[in-house]
Structures are given as C-alpha cells and as structure tokens.
Write a structure and sequence with these properties.
- By secondary structure, this protein is an alpha+beta fold.
- The chain is built from 23 helices and 21 strands.
- The chain has 4 domains: 191 residues, Porin chaperone SurA, peptide-binding domain (Triger factor/SurA peptide-binding fold), CATH 1.10.4030; 131 residues, no CATH class; 116 residues, Chitinase A, domain 3 (Roll), CATH 3.10.50; 106 residues, Chitinase A, domain 3 (Roll), CATH 3.10.50.40.
- The chain is 49% helix and 18% strand.
- The longest helix is centred in the middle third of the chain and has 34 residues.
- The protein is flat, with a radius of gyration of 34 Å.
Length: 631
C-alpha cells in the first residue's frame, strides 16, 4: 500500500506540482480557493464561495503566461484580451469551484500520508535524490509560498482527481465501432484529377472603383491603424539587486556552520515490510483477523528470520514491495506514515519488529540498514550559500529600494532619470507598440492600462511603479504617440482592389468547378486533361491537402465513377474523379489501438463535460453583469 502511494507520487501529479514551482504558482490553496474573496468585491459566486475580480485577473494572467510559454512566437496576446477569453476563464473557475465543493461534500480529503509521500518524490524538494525539509521550505519561500499553502494545493489536486477519475476511468468504446472506424480510416481510393486554373475565369473578373470605395466605407475598422506608443522605462527587480550584493567569506563560513544540516543528506533508513492490509474503518472482527495473521507470521520469522523475503513475496498485500522481497528502499523522516516511521527510526539493523498498526493495516518491519547523515564540504556548496545570502540580503533591502524607487518615480513625474540614478539603473527605450501587441512587460494588464490611458498619453508623465510580477517593479513614460488613424483611400485602394480581385476570381472559379463536377456526375463529357490514376489515403499529401482529402473521402461512392472538387492551395480548382474504393484486407492492430485511444479520450472529455455541467447545475451560481469587463 505504501509502495503504491509512492509510485503514484512519481506520476502526473509530481510532474504537475514541479511545473507549478518552476513555471508559475497559478493555483491557490484550498483554503483561499474554497473561502473565496473576503473583500466583498465578488464578481461571481458558486454556492457560498466567491470569485473576486482580482482572482479572475490573476488566473487570466496565469493562463496567458502558460499559453505564451507553450506557443512561443505563435502566441497572440490579443486573444487573451477578448471578452470571450475572459468568459472562458471565469467559466472554468466556476466549474472548478463547483467540483471542489462537491468533493468537499463527499469528503474526498487527502490523508497526511498521501501528502507526505508526494512531497517526498518532487525533485525540486530533494537533495541528492532525497527529500529535504530545508530545501522544501527554501523553494517555497523563494516563490512566495508557505508549506501550508502548497500542501493545500496538493490536497486540492487530490480532491479533483478523486471526484473526476471515476468518470474518466469508466470510458470504454465498442469493439465493433472501433473496427468500423479503423476500416474507414484505412480505406483508400483510386483517383485521377484535372485542374482548372484561375486564367479560365480571368476575363470575367472585373473590380470597379465603386466596389473599392464601397469596401473602404464598409471596412474602416480593418483599415484603421491602431494607436501606437513608444516609451522609456525602468525595471527594478530583486534578482538584479541580489546580483549586486557582495558577500564576504566570513559571512559564508558563518552561514554554513549555522546551517550545516541544510547542505547534506539527512539520515536515511532502508527497510522492508510485510503488510497485512485492513481498512482503518473495518469492524473489530476484521481487524482482529488481520492482526492474528500478522502475529502468525511474526512467530514464523522469530524462528526463521531468513524466510522474510519468501514470506513477503507470498503473504504481503503491498504488491509493489512484495515483488521486491518486501523492500521499500531508502527513505528519510517525513516520507512514511507516522507509526511506521517511528518504528523504523527506533530499530537496529536486521531487527524485525512486532506488527505495527497504521491506517493501512499491520506491518511486520525489518530494518535493512542505516545511511548516516552526511554534510557536504563548504567548497561544494559555496555557490549555493552565496546565492542564499545574497537573496536574504536582497529581500531585506528591496523593500526600502522599492519604496524609494516608487517615491522618486512619483515625485519626478516628467523624468525617470532621478529614480534611475538612485537605483543605479539605465533608462531603456521601447519600440513602437499597440495595446494588443505590446511585448513584456508592457502587456501586463495594469501597466498596459496605465500607459494607454488618455491621461498618460496627454501628460507624458511617469506611470506609478507597477509590480508586474513578484519582486519586479516597472515604471514607464510615453515619449512618442501616434493616434489611431484611418488610412486614406489613396493609400489602400491598390490593396483593396487586389483583395477583391482575388476573392472574386476564387468565387467564379469555384462556381465553374462545381458546375463542371455536376455535369460530369450526369455523364456529360467536360473535355478535361486528366492525370494518371493514383491510389490515395486519408492523410494529406502532395496530391491532396487536408481539404482535398476531406472532399475525396466525403463524396458518395454508391455509384462510380464519382466526382468532387476543391480549391487547391495554388489557387486552381482541382476536380477529382474517384474510380475505385479499396478496403483494407485486415485491421491493423496498431491503428486499432491508436483509434481506441482517441475514442476513449473523446468519450472521457464528453463524460467529464457532462459531469461538470451536472455538478455545476446543482450549485447556486451567480455572475455579476460586469463580471468580464475590464482589461
């Protein structure tokens, strides 16, 4: 049982939590998440739990950051500024709170042993491969978190997993349906094709001046250049402050001496166990039966301790460790349930302890070895000590620096130089930007709103020092401004004419192609120059792009030859003749497995959506009319 928990901790949850530490702490602890906003500024309520505008803003920023990291250069900040995006984020927060409320109602709560086992497997909290309490607290402290908050996040993840996993695990497809889908996917068709070039309708394409003017009048928003600004700015961040702090060798030596335990590996113990499992809520008779079984085994081991591995394989009800002769490997304090841990850390090597009771049942424990605590030499950890001392000193001075920085930015409203001089910073210049394509850090909602406000544009004064992320302040001032302008017709008429010409040409060519396809289907000869026959599958290729493959495999083949057509990427209209349908002689097992995976995932998404909707419908949800307003 313990081994099963430890294995689970190495899976998706540990990876998710590690990502939270390294990338961003986008979630809030169960306490804050479940208690809602206590400030009164609620924009939505789920049952008796509120969602504040600040929560929504933070979640929008967190999702934007994740999208930016995932998509890279393809990320479009404008997407995250739309009302639709804000509504999607708010809806997901409402659904999440509804799920947590339901899980809380059903008492799906994570036991302490589970939380401890997960923490013990997170690489960010380990020193030399083992859990370090000091590192755990240091990593959280660096990210502005407390152990209580973080452990609540783990419990929250457990609650969501507990309530959603039965639905996701219940999805299974029909074998008949999978086979039918696999045969359709594997099906091939023999085709020939003929292309109608755009030149065949060129004589019919005429764009008049009136049409250009009409388009210009109807699409002025499209033809308007958005407002642009160019700014100068200062960035004060705690990392730069830390980098400029000198640390002397005496301070390094003193810190190392005072925190020696932090720079080593705490005592580890290797143990094996035989578990006779019984639920902690089982009746007295059932527990007594399990205890008696454990007592029988300990009597055998008293006479023949060399049989421990044999009995572990045969009798232990912890399948993970049983397969390893009962071995649980090495672990430190805080990684096992308390009764088990207390026993192990009070034993001598090779001692076999009488059955120890825990929430999982009765454990017969053997201590296999002790790995003493070790301390790394100062030379190996000096860089880490220096970094920690710099970080500590930077935290102490940053608050004062930040206050002075903010005051100077405010007091010298028309120049950033006084603040730059005092903080030993360099005033930087930005390029031209719009509200929708502003780069970091100007895409931060508060900073962007301040810069593009009419007051900032008119006065050209400094914004206040805005915290764009923990430990980073930015102040900026507009140095140049270009108001939005409707580009004159003379400037855009050629582009409009080309656009209208291309659209009209494509429409006329598609009409001609569709008419030709209809004539061919009636048996009329169209005098086309057909290609050689070729067998194609559903996957896009040089012959058929995605739209072409869809057209070829969508056309009815009840009567052959069958005809269809589509607009080819090169601008031609491709007419396709389907002459044969080739069925796969047998279903490919790998294809079937792939389809099964896709179908299961689709079913899981549909089932999950239905379950979430049902749970949310059971909660009283109130959304304020202005909930998604603002940046």
């Amino acid at each position: 049982m313990l081994e099963a928990i430890r294995r689970h901790a190495k899976g998706w949850l540990a990876k998710v939590i590690l990502a939270l530490i390294i990338v961003t702490f986008a979630l809030f602890g169960v306490d804050s998440y479940m208690s809602g906003d206590k400030s009164g500024g609620k924009i939505a309520e789920v049952g008796d739990v509120g969602i504040s505008r600040e929560e929504l803003t933070r979640e929008i920023q967190a999702q934007s950051d994740r999208m930016r990291e995932t998509l890279g250069p393809a990320f479009d900040p404008a997407v995250t500024e739309t009302a639709d995006f804000r509504k999607q984020v708010l809806d997901s927060m409402i659904e999440r709170k509804a799920l947590l409320l339901e899980a809380q109602k059903l008492q799906f709560l994570a036991p302490d042993a589970y939380v401890a086992s997960v923490l013990g497997q997170i690489p960010a909290f380990q020193e030399d491969g083992t859990f370090s309490q000091q590192r755990y607290e240091a990593v959280l402290r660096q990210n502005g978190r407390t152990p209580a908050q973080f452990e609540n996040e783990l419990r929250q993840a457990f609650m969501l997993e507990a309530i959603t996993s039965p639905v996701s695990l219940a999805a299974f497809p029909s074998h008949t349906s999978l086979t039918q889908i696999a045969r359709l996917v594997a099906q091939q068709r023999e085709i020939a094709w003929a292309d109608l070039p755009a030149s065949t309708v060129a004589s019919q394409v005429q764009v008049t001046t009136a049409e250009v003017e009409q388009y210009y009048a109807a699409n002025q928003a499209e033809l308007t250049e958005p407002e642009q600004i160019r700014v100068e700015h200062l960035v004060l961040d705690i990392a730069s402050v830390a980098a400029g702090i000198a640390v002397n060798e005496k301070a390094v030596a003193e810190y190392y001496a005072a925190n020696a335990a932090q720079f080593g590996q705490p005592e580890q113990r290797r143990a094996s166990h035989i578990l006779i499992a019984v639920d902690k809520n089982a009746d007295a008779a059932t527990r007594a039966q399990a205890k008696a079984k454990a007592a029988e085994l300990i009597q055998v081991l008293r006479k023949a301790p060399e049989r421990f591995a044999e009995l572990a394989r045969a009798e232990s009800q912890d399948p993970g460790s049983a397969a390893q002769d009962g071995s649980l490997g090495s672990f430190g304090r805080g990684m096992m349930v308390k009764p088990f841990e207390d026993a192990v850390f009070s034993m001598k090597p090779n001692e076999i302890r009488d059955p120890v009771e825990s929430d999982f049942g009765y454990h017969i424990i053997r201590l296999d070895g002790i790995e003493p605590a070790q301390t790394a030499p100062l030379a190996e950890v000096r860089a880490a000590v220096v970094d920690e001392l710099r970080r500590q000193q930077a935290q102490k001075v940053f608050a004062d620096l930040a206050e002075n920085f903010s005051n100077l930015v405010y007091e010298n409203a028309t120049s950033l130089q006084p603040a730059a001089t005092a903080a030993k910073l360099t005033v930087k210049q930005s390029g031209w930007m719009t509200a929708k394509n502003a780069p970091q850090p100007f895409n931060h909602p508060a900073l962007s709103a301040a810069l593009f406000s009419p007051e900032s544009i008119k006065s050209r004064q400094n914004t206040e020092a805005i915290e764009v992320q923990p430990g980073t302040l930015v102040a900026a001032r507009i140095v140049e401004h270009r108001p939005a302008r409707l580009r004159p017709l003379s400037e855009v008429s050629a582009a409009i004419e080309a656009k209208l010409h291309a659209a009209l040409s494509a429409r006329l060519l598609a009409q001609k192609g569709e008419t030709t396809v209809q004539a061919l289907a009636k048996g009329e000869e169209a005098n086309l120059n057909w290609s050689d026959f070729q067998v194609v599958g559903r996957q896009p290729s040089a012959v058929l792009d995605a739209a072409g493959a869809k057209a070829v495999f969508r056309v009815s083949t009840d009567k052959l030859p069958a005809y269809t057509g589509f607009t080819h990427p090169d601008g031609t209209y491709r007419i396709v003749r389907v002459s044969r349908v080739l069925e796969a002689p047998a279903v490919d097992p790998m294809l079937l497995a792939s389809i099964e995976s896709g179908v299961v995932q689709a079913q899981q998404r549909a089932d999950m959506k239905a379950m979430v909707a049902l749970i949310a419908a059971g909660q009283k949800v109130k959304i304020q009319p202005n909930a998604i307003e603002g940046r």
